[in-house]
Amino acid sequence: MNQPLSGIFTPNITPLDAKGRLDEDKLRGYVDWLIEHGVHGLYPNGSTGEFVRFTPEERRRVIEVVVDQTRGRVPILAGAAEANVAETIRACDTYGALGCRAVAIVAPFYYRLAPDGVFAYFKEIADNVSVDVTLYNIPLFASPIDVATVKRLAQECPRIVGIKDSSGDIPHMMRMISEVRPLRPDFFFLTGWDAALVPMLLVGCDGGTNATSGVVPELTRAIYEACKAGQWDRAMQLQYRLLPLFDAMIATVEFPEGFRRGAQIRGWDLGQSRQPLTPQQTTAADVAQRRIREMLSGFDFMQTKSSLSKVVAPDASDAVIDRIVSEVLTQLRSK
Fold this sequence. Notes:
Layout: E1 7-11, H1 24-36, E2 41-43, H2 56-70, E3 77-79, H3 85-98, E4 102-106, H4 115-126, E5 133-137, H5 147-156, E6 160-165, H6 170-180, E7 188-191, H7 197-202, E8 207-209, H8 217-228, H9 232-250, H10 257-265, H11 279-296, H12 319-333
Helix pairs in contact: 1-2, 2-3, 3-4, 4-5, 5-6, 8-9, 9-11, 9-12, 10-11
């Protein structure tokens, strides 16, 4: 039986050495650390992993290393998007044969396609691959996938088993769930927008592919487990602690530099991105890194070795946070 695509999947940052090459040893160590610190799955070759900045051969090697190091401990959702359909199908089959649970394919990018074009693209892939496919909706960078297209693909393509949606649009997610889940109860819904993780889980998502889990896996796991237990007050308190971290990391000069800086604070120097930075941008990133470090410093897992035992943020009982949480939950439950 296939492992479920649920819980928190980490979009892996791709470690690079001093010469800008894939640092395989660092990647192996980082994979172990993420699993040991509670992530439910791994998502190499995603946007946070800067897949477009690597060659097809490098992307394949990333998957080979991650699969080998994971050794079946958690499922792997592998980014498999290439520049055209034929190459994408080839990557899908390769990653499936290596042992990935499923592949994630971003909607066509560069050329902005209409919904029918998006449907034709995914159907061609789904009809010709030997591995389960997850749609990847990130309208900031690629053609959007609308609700009608998701529903049509779910109905016509059994190989398509879920969607990772990074729009952050809660009503859009709710409409997808309401249209697709009655037809395909096995269809998975994952959110890629960390700022709305708890609300997305509340409305029915199965989990998330969250870049912050590559920096604070203890916190994202605690949020997921609180939601699964129906501890919504607790979950929202943690969400409001995750929010400023996410904002600080995603707004740090060029994405995903902020997440590289966050990982460095946790002890993982994953090298410099292949996207060059100006001296001014580097200074801005250094300032943001200090701010991220200050935000992280109050969490228990920064001081203890038993990272999964407890997740407590500074001022966790703050009356203002409690009031905001109560108001947000009341609004969400009234929808």
